[in-house]
């Protein structure tokens, strides 16, 4: 358990450990929930939405910074996000789950439907990848955890899909991977995965 700095209460937040066998790093579900609670306590509405969108869409922070309201379409129980990425102005469509839809609504979707304006703004204009990194660091400084990067949230999205049994082909399309080899890194079991596996066959409860 980590102690929050200069606050009265403790926030359960396991330290993120890097698995030497993995080339990607992600947060497990407990860590993701703890991160969200941390932002709900210390982050702005915009910042909370950014964390939720990164965890539920897996988009890169540069892609997030380039989002305009016209790229988001929300309906009652579904939604779609158009993401432009890579060379040649490639694009992909990401279905939005309920968590992502609520995040966009909290940012003022209904007042900006179809607008050509950027969604994420900073004090001096459109938010930049560096701005997101600094925002994340600022909130994380409220705890003793400081080594999470925005890209770790993209990895967490992909790992969540793998753990839920989603095929590599679907994950590759959602993440914008050009090769399945990139997607396969999320299939490599972490130490936590191995621990869960052996615990399943334990005779002791």
Q: How does this structure look, described?
A:
Residues 22-199 form the Tyr recombinase domain. GO terms for molecular function: DNA binding. Pfam families: Phage_integrase. By secondary structure, the protein is mainly α. It has one domain (29-197): hpI Integrase, Chain A. Helix content is 43%, strand content 10%. The protein has nine helices and five strands. The protein has helices spanning 29-42, 45-57, 61-65, 98-106, 129-140, 150-163, 168-175, 180-184, 191-199; strands at 72-74, 79-85, 90-95, 121-122, 125-126. A three-stranded antiparallel β-sheet has the order 1-2-3, covered by helices on one side. It has a two-stranded antiparallel sheet with strand order 4-5. A hairpin with a 4-residue loop joins strand 2 (79-85) and strand 3 (90-95). Helix 1 packs antiparallel against helix 2 and helix 2 (45-57) packs antiparallel against helix 4 (98-106). The longest helix is centred in the N-terminal third of the chain and has 14 residues, at 29-42. It is globular, with a radius of gyration of 18 Å. The model is unreliable at 1-10 (pLDDT under 50).
């Amino acid at each position: 358990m980590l102690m929050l700095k200069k606050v009265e209460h403790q926030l359960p937040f396991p330290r993120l450990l890097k698995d030497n066998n993995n080339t990607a790093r992600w947060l497990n579900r407990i860590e993701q929930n703890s991160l969200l609670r941390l932002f709900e306590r210390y982050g702005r509405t915009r910042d909370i939405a950014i964390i939720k969108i990164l965890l539920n869409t897996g988009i890169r922070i540069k892609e997030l910074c380039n989002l305009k309201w016209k790229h988001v379409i929300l309906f009652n129980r579904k939604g779609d996000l158009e993401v432009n990425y890579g060379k040649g102005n490639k694009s992909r469509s990401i279905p939005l789950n309920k968590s992502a839809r609520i995040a966009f609504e909290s940012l003022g979707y209904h007042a900006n439907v179809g607008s050509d304006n950027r969604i994420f703004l900073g004090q001096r204009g459109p938010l930049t990848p560096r701005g997101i990194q600094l925002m994340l660091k600022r909130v994380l400084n409220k705890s003793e955890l400081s080594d999470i990067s925005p890209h770790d949230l993209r990895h967490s999205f992909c790992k969540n899909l793998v753990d839920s049994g989603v095929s590599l082909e679907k994950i590759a399309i959602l993440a914008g991977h050009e090769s399945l080899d990139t997607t396969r890194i999320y299939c490599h079991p972490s130490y936590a995965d191995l621990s869960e596996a052996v615990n399943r066959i334990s005779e002791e409860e």
